[in-house]
Design brief:
301 residues; single chain; 28% strand; binds pyridoxal-5'-phosphate; 16 strands; alpha+beta
């Protein structure tokens, strides 16, 4: 089959990726003044599409950006972008920027938001072997506190997380974990974090992005009869946990096998991590909570 050029959604049009150009005067480029959301398609179904669109709109509302599309239109644009790129398993990103203004100052008024969506073959942020996992480092870079910019907003400005990632890479670790300014564990650069201690599944309650995979992990854990607590925990609790894992749309449930040179639990993917991960992939495989791309094309548009 001849290779089809990738197509992206740009402010209502579907444009060849090579032709999709955003102005250097765009506020997203100039100031990181914009938000985004990352979703995924698996086996032809977009997982929790409504939840992703709602989270995107909440981010827009929090940063006072008016989106020129309804939730139904954004939903349809996601479906259409995946369909036009002939993707079965996809990594989907929707970006909303505050837009362009002349002169291009920080003044946020008088702009029209730009909306862009692209879909790529499914991306895993981290690769891990069957029984392997992540050797993580707690970064000296602290997560931006809620009082400065709430991490629940999925802002375009990811420099805080990129700096933490450099810190981990420089130390020879696979990935970073960021703590808040008081020293409690928050999240990773693109992942929420969980620990399992004495059968209880624990994840930070605040100063983190409310991940859709995080929410799914909590649902699965409860469905399995496990106790779940959303509360802060310290690096000590992480070092001494029975199991630890990251959760993300781009890869699912990823075991953390060591932190700062301390083995976590058995140093392998633990049984609860495994069973939650299996149920997660089962949901994706079967289209549970999924919106089928082909049968939903053109609906409501
Ligand atoms: C900072 C941060 N935390 C957590 C997550 C995980 O969220 P989700 O499960 O919705 O992918 C992401 C995903 O992009 C993220 O960027």
């Amino acid at each position: 089959m001849p290779e089809v050029e990738a197509v992206v959604f740009m402010n209502g049009d579907y444009v060849a990726a090579s032709q999709a150009k955003v102005s250097i005067f765009d506020s997203g480029f100039l100031y990181g003044d914009g938000v985004f959301d990352t979703s995924s398609a698996w086996n032809g179904f977009i997982f929790k599409l409504d939840e992703h669109v709602e989270r995107l709109l909440r981010s827009c509302h929090a940063v006072r950006m008016d989106v020129p599309y309804t939730a139904a239109e954004l939903r349809q644009a996601h479906i259409e972008t995946v369909a036009r790129n002939n993707l079965t398993n996809a990594y989907i990103k929707c970006i909303v920027t505050r837009g362009i203004k002349d002169p291009p100052t920080l003044d946020p008024r008088g702009r029209e938001a730009g909306v862009f969506i692209f879909a790529k073959p499914y991306i895993r942020l981290v690769e891990e072997g069957d029984d392997g996992g992540i050797n993580a480092k707690i970064s000296s870079v602290r997560r931006i506190p809620m009082a400065a910019l709430d991490p629940k907003i999925k802002t375009l400005d990811y420099l805080n997380l990129v700096m933490a990632k450099f810190d981990a890479i420089d130390a020879g670790a696979d990935d970073a974990i960021l703590c808040d300014t008081e020293g409690y564990v928050c999240e990773g650069p693109g992942y929420n974090i969980f620990i399992v201690s004495n059968g209880e599944v624990v994840t930070p309650a605040d100063t983190v992005l409310m991940g859709i995979t995080r929410e799914t992990v909590i649902e699965i854990a409860r469905e399995k009869g496990l106790d779940v607590a959303e509360r802060r925990f310290s690096p000590f609790e992480l070092y001494t946990a029975d199991e630890a894992f990251f959760s993300t749309t781009a890869g699912g449930v990823i075991p953390i096998v060591s932190v700062d040179g301390r083995t976590v639990g058995s140093g392998e993917r633990g049984p609860i991590t495994r069973s939650i991960s299996e149920r997660y992939w089962d949901m994706l495989e079967t289209g549970e909570h999924g919106t089928e791309v082909l049968s939903n094309r053109g609906i409501g548009s």
